[in-house]
Amino acid sequence: SADFGLLPLAVKYYYQLAKKNSTYRAQWYAEAGRWANQAADYARAADAFRSASASLNQATNFNQYTNNWLNASINAEQFEQVKPFLTKVVAHPPKSLKTIEKIANISYQAGFYTIASQLFFTLALRDDAIEKQRWYEKASYWASKAENYTDAASYLIKAEQITNNSNDRWVIQQRLIDIYMKDKKPQLALSILLPILKQTPENKKLSNKAIYIALINNKFSLARKLNKNYLQTAPNSLNALSNQVEIEIADKKYTQAIHYIKKIIKITPYALKPRQQWAQLEEQEGNYSLALELRQWVYNTTNKAEHLQKVIQVAQLDLKGSGLKTLQQLAQQQELPTQAVYDVFFHLVNSGQKKSAERFLSQYLESHRAKKKLLITLAKWYGGEKRYAKALKTWNKVEKYFGRSSTSGLNKFELLWALNRKHQAHRLWLNNYRRWGKHANTRQLSLMAEVAWQNKHTKTALSYYKRLLNKRYRGAAKKRPLQYMRIAILNKKMGRPRTALSTYHKGFIKTRNTDLLINGLQLSFDQYDTYNFKRLTSLAKKYRRQFRSNSRYWLLQAANAQQNKQYQTALRYYRKVLSLKPRSREARRGVRDIKRYLRGI
Length: 601
What we know:
The structure is a single chain. The chain is an all-alpha fold. It has a domain at 549-601. It is built from 35 helices and no strands. Helix 10 runs antiparallel to helix 11. This is Tetratricopeptide repeat protein.
């Protein structure tokens, strides 16, 4: 089976051998595990190797098959199944240091960082001085990964105590600082860092690191204290001034930060970063006009696109100030981000400057490469303003530059209908309705249904009204009676009177619209459908208040009674109609016919 590549079958037979042959059971299970591994069936491989390991009946926790089982379990992502074994090893570790190292490596591969850390710590306790430091560092690393920062720090302290190498001690101290920072113990981090800084005060890197640690832990007074001596000895030092700016910004004292930024600008008047920081602070304070002025200075100095982008962003925030003029001027010279064009256009619209808005966007589209989204925005705006001819012309431009689409076609269809060019709307719909069906919104679908209805496209109209009936949208309740009515009428046209009657019945239940039920009565009467007439009449009696003053309802009841030769009942119903509608010709004729018939008898 294995030779022919039938690996799952080979695994099956090795399992059978293992169950039948107790002498070589472990070997057969191991073979099953090997071939299951080859077949990438890691769950089966893990089971086989575990059975092989258990079959040896050895007193030790770790044998020749245990490693294979653990690796297969990791590949099968059966992490929780190996955890009890690994926990047991921590409590009773093997004598072999190599075995402990293997299990430690497997532990972190399985994601059990705490167990890995504990096993490396065991190695550190058992090993000689040569490897002790390495094991402590590994134990610390995996304890840190497990977010057990207390143990991580403890192991590093032990590693520092036994090292004789100054470079190693330096690295360990830096790692210890990082661990204390992660453990949110900045004081302990600084307790290591400050003595080092005291010995090497000229080390600006360490000084900056100490300030950084103080800052990120909101120890602003400490950060100021650390930077104070620096400023006193070198008041014009850019590094010290920059540190002070960062301190004031972190403490949200923006006025003080700007004060130090201005000092930096006096020393380096052409530096970009100070002005960029200043601009950012003014933005946060809402002083967009000044921020815009600063951003423009930076852009004029560098002429870089990234700085122009900042100018545009701030100008978008300052549309009520100089930002509007800035964007309008930029728009004459180059393309703007689409959102910036939107912002200018809609700001002008919302502030009542509709002509200016139209002129801005129209000129922008003429001056620069036409953008589809902007053209569509202009077209839709024209439509919203009921300037349908302009909107139609703009949609034609969209199609000219970007090709026809269902979106443009549907919008043109709506506009043609609004312009009362119904023949063109019908022709456009006729050429595209198969493609439009999936893309039309509710309003467009309603209009398509109306066009199909008016032009007697019965099947298509029916499908549209059914889709509308299943949609939920604002104002749907008001349109439901019409939709049910037309679905019923269309079904009748297609020779399906029973479906039509069912629609009338369901429509009345859903909408309580009396016209639906009365039309249903009329259809059942015309079709001589006694069952549905009685069914609808029964429903009407349930809601009799709605029909009490409806002359058409009583006229149908009278006609039905007359048809069924229930003349006295019919007379009563006709008189009810006449009481509601005295000039009803149908009711008068009905009364006259019945009386003539009764006199003849």
